Amino acid sequence: MAIGGTVISLVLGDRSAVLAQVSTEKSGRTVQRVGRFDAPAGTRLLDKPADTGASLAAFLAGHGFSAKKAVVGVPARWVIAQEKDLPPVDVGGAADLLRLAAERLSLAEAGSLVADYAGAPDPKNASRVLLVGMLKPQLDKVTQFIEAAGLSLEAVCPTALAIARVAGGDRSVLRLSDDGAELVVQQNGNPRTLQPLTPDMAALGSELRRNLTMRGAAADVLLADGIGLSTAQHADLAGRLSRPPQAFGDDLGISVDSSARNGSVLSSHAHWPAVALAVAAADKRGLPVDFNDTKLLYRPPARFGQRTILAAAAGVLVVAGFIWLITTVSAQEARERELFQQVKDQEPIAKDARAVIDQLTYGRTYFDHRPPALECVRQATLAFNYDEPIWATKIVYNINGHDQLVGKVLDDRGDTRLILDLAARLSANPSFTNVSVPTQSEGGSKEKLKTFSINFSFEPKAPPAKADEAKTLPAKAAK
């Protein structure tokens, strides 16, 4: 399984670990941080994994390592690797055969092994794979160490196998570290052997050449130098081989941030194995071996086939749909009954409200839509001034337009000024047309009351605005 994003890869040794934080996004691979973590003096890295893991957590925080996913590489001395021949068999059959071989290997080693294999079984032809096992107590220590550092353990793989996966082809990989040397021989793109070599640099070249010759490996050797060989040592190693070894890391095409080294004391190529570990984990094929998620882990066969499971899921969805439909319809019906009951309960109130509305509507017609006769009385009343001794006694309204206003005036001075002013105000109102000259007659009272009449035609129109209209109405109504 591919592990993408940003990860911290840790190449473990007996007393130290080389770290690299690598981003493997689609936009490009970048080495963001590299560093070296050393166990406390006089101790090994996994002697007290919980305590050393806590120290690692402080180291990560202090050196800018921010990723939480961890991929761990272990040295070849911590694992057991054997090449196994397989008959034509598929992946499931190969897992069964290799699981039995791993159990026999566990008995031989007198300890519980966690096993995985590198290579691809061929269902049509005989094939070879590399069976790799790691003692479970040692793997448990690795897990405790990583978890104590606050990291999530994603995969555990021999470091040299991860380098070989990145290298590809049939090139053999020679890895040098503080803990010694280890060799991976590849054929047809798959690893055929993983073994530690002598840590004696003087004898390393001869042992390497002998192993390559015995296995008929290609002459191309990729050198992952984690210790920094001197010029003389590199020349001696090249002299033992038919071709000089190629430095690993030069052709990876991975950029390194300028601030990645964080002041750590590392040789020029010491961080590349850790980078290769992260790159191999991000490959779509995944790591060749992963003790954290081994291909040999027994998984009981499913009791039901895929079709049965899909059919059952479809049936559950159909039943759930019917239940939802019934529940929804029932809820809607209950809501409908509730609304009908509310309408029924509100009917008496609505009946009273309609009666009030009808009364108000009828009453408003006397203000908004008065009959012409009432409007004639209103506008004629507005023509009177409340402070003058003149008033109306009768208004005659005819639908044929021959209307008349009859009134009285108290005139001590013997003139008709008040009557003429009233006629003029009526003429100024556009609703009154054909206003005649007032006629008058003497009254019989001691106060010299005079009766007058004015003829006109009334057609309702908007009367001219009058500021004291509100005062005039009550005064004329009193008269």
Write up this protein:
The structure is a single chain. The chain is α/β, with parallel strands linked by helices and 479 residues long. The protein has three domains: 6-282, Nucleotidyltransferase, domain 5 (2-Layer Sandwich); 305-367; 372-478, Gyrase A, domain 2 (2-Layer Sandwich). The chain has eleven helices and 19 strands. The protein has helices at 49-62, 91-109, 136-148, 159-167, 201-214, 231-240, 272-282, 306-368, 372-382, 417-428, 469-478; strands at residues 6-12, 16-25, 28-38, 69-74, 79-86, 113-118, 127-135, 152-158, 172-177, 180-187, 190-197, 221-225, 246-247, 255-256, 390-396, 403-410, 432-433, 439-442, 449-458. The strands form four sheets. The protein has a six-stranded mixed sheet with strand order 8-4-1-2-3-14, sandwiched between helices. Strands 11-10-9-12-13 form a five-stranded mixed sheet, with helices on both faces. Strands 15, 16, 17, 18 and 19 form a five-stranded antiparallel sheet that branches. Helix 4 packs across helix 7 (272-282). The longest helix has 63 residues, at 306-368. The protein is rod-shaped and about 160 Å long. The two termini are 107 Å apart. The model is unreliable at 469-479 (pLDDT under 50).
